[in-house]
Amino acid sequence: MQSDPSSQSLAQTRTKKRPRTDSFDNEIALALTGLTDIPSISVARDPKYYQVNGDCKIRVGNTLFSIHRSLFEPDFLAFQSMLQLNSASGLTDENPIILARDTAEHFRALCWALYALSNSLTPEQTEGNSIELLTDLAFISHKYQLATIQSWSMNAIRRKCDHDICLWDNEKSYLIHCPDHLLSILLRLFVLYDETALQLLVTNSWITRLTSELPLSAFSTAFEFAEDNKLRTFLGQLYYARLTVADHESRHATFPQVNFPLQELEERHVQRIMRGSWALSNAWQNLLLSLPSLPAHSGCQQHDSKCIPEWKKLWASASTRGSVSDIRSKLRYIRDCLVNASYYGNGRISLGCITAGQSIVVPLIEKVELAFPDYFLGPE
Ligand SMILES: [Zn+2]
After folding, report:
1. Which parts of the sequence are annotated with region: Disordered (predicted)?
2. Where are the alpha helices (DSSP H) in 144-217?
3. Tally of structural domains, the chain
4. DSSP secondary-structure letter at 231?
5. What confidence category does residue 74 fall into, taking pLDDT thresholds of 50, 70 and 90?
6. Exposure of 40 in the CB half-sphere (CA atoms within 13 A)
7. What's the CA-to-centroid distance between 353 and ligand 1, angstroms?
8. Cα separation of 143 and 29, whole Å?
9. Rounded to the nearest whole angstrom, what is the distance from the C-alpha of residue 359 to the centroid of ligand 1?
10. What is the whole-number distance in angstroms between the Cα of residue 142 and the centre of ligand 1?
11. Residue where one domain finishes, among candidates 166, 193, 218
């Protein structure tokens, strides 16, 4: 199915047709509306999934499927009640169950999965197990509450995304190398399934790609995706990433630039990035003005003479790192210095106080990251 360019993935098609939030009821209402709306056109039997002895007739567009009702078990009752079918629905070619809002191709994918499942096959053991096919299955099975296929396809997708993660080598990660369009499909799917850990995996990979390999114009696509899907946290992370790229470009330009190089962006994005830049710079200045104090570890004998001056020096040194608004890099610099000091034991800050310093800086980084949307978009 992925070879036919006219058959965009289900995920892409649906993004354009409706907002994510009203997904389920609307789809079903539309599916039922179709019962009367479909003009009487000639109907052809599907060459592969019209089984002569099938007892469940389903019409999708002008294609008629005949499959075995038992394949849907244990989910058929949920499927039946959701579509408000009566017991006679789908028993004959003349009275099929009509799915008006799906394509024959997507339903064919569902049939493929139903038969593979009935043979106890894993997605990896079947042909055509591309990630596009699996995501289509996860979407359509969610729509029709086919719980068995939902978990079958999601497990395969989860394995695919998790499997190739290598903490030490980003290059090996599937999400770093998969085709660009899959990032938005996967993220929408993981939002639909409320898979927060997987959402984070996708957004982190997406940002890594945006800041390293993709053209800057790809930021606009990501901004729009995050806006359309109301992904405020992701939008905040994206703005921060774009700001750091602009800062970097600005500092390395041949001629000093008055404005950030943000030409390719729409005005509202530019305004938000400028607002974030100002707010983050302010936040850093405020941190310097009221520097978090380093508590003395109980065994520390040199706190006032060594730890405190060194702690202040560390913050002053961080202030010179990167641009003034790149507050996360500054805090990460402090964290890394503390880790290194702890590792090499250079004695400038006592070990116990290094731990105390880390317990100040690490939560601060998390707090700043969580506040990215507020810096750029204002309070919710
Ligand atoms: Zn100390």
Report:
1. 1-21
2. 147-163, 174-177, 180-192, 196-212
3. 2
4. -
5. confident
6. 2
7. 5
8. 12
9. 14
10. 56
11. 166
